[in-house]
Design a protein that fits this description.
Rossmann fold; seven-stranded mixed beta sheet
């Protein structure tokens, strides 16, 4: 398995979009053992699929995600407008879930080494008894632009206590979250 220090900083950010999280469950992690993640220098982030009730949440989550990714300094993230222009120019029918062929075309056009796609499954407030928590549940995929192959993917659900009580709705206490469970 090949890796570089830059990618070590890059991977955790792929799912780290919450702040002061009580609990985080990262599931279904896949990492291609043959991929040289150090070769990824430039990434394009496509619009995220939105399965949440709030219609604009996917755009907000993607903006935060891009900001966090840029802050690592591990990769260059192409501007949202440049990616949007590439999607329009290629007339991609479903830019949030591109086919492998679409990824190769978009990567070539934008000179990106990888394309990141995402799905926001849940975003908002959940209640359990007298406890209230903000929750975000999402999946991210890193797709190699040269081949259109998924080389890394993971899903994460994070909850943050709103009421100052334990995050019982998410199954953990704030102390558990402080120990770095996410």
């Amino acid at each position: 398995m090949k890796s570089t220090p830059g990618f070590v900083a890059f991977v955790p950010v792929l799912l780290a979009i919450g702040v002061s999280v009580c609990t985080a469950q990262v599931t279904d992690v896949y990492r291609d053992p043959n991929m040289d993640f150090g070769s990824i220098q430039t990434v394009a982030v496509t619009p995220f699929t939105n399965l949440a009730r709030d219609q604009i949440v996917a755009d907000r989550v993607r903006d935060v995600f891009i900001g966090r990714l840029l802050s690592t300094g591990a990769v260059y993230v192409l501007p949202v407008g440049e990616v949007a222009r590439g999607i329009v120019k290629l007339e991609l029918q479903n830019p949030s879930s591109p086919t492998p062929e679409d990824v190769v075309k978009l990567g070539t056009l934008l000179k990106a080494d990888a394309v990141i796609t995402g799905v926001v499954r849940e975003y908002g407030e959940v209640r359990s008894g007298s406890s209230t928590a903000n929750i975000i549940s999402m999946s991210i995929q890193l797709i190699e632009a040269g081949t259109g192959k998924v080389v890394w993917s993971a899903s994460s659900t994070k909850a943050e206590s709103v009421s100052g009580t334990a995050c019982s709705a998410a199954g953990a206490t704030p102390e558990q979250g402080d120990r770095g469970s996410g």
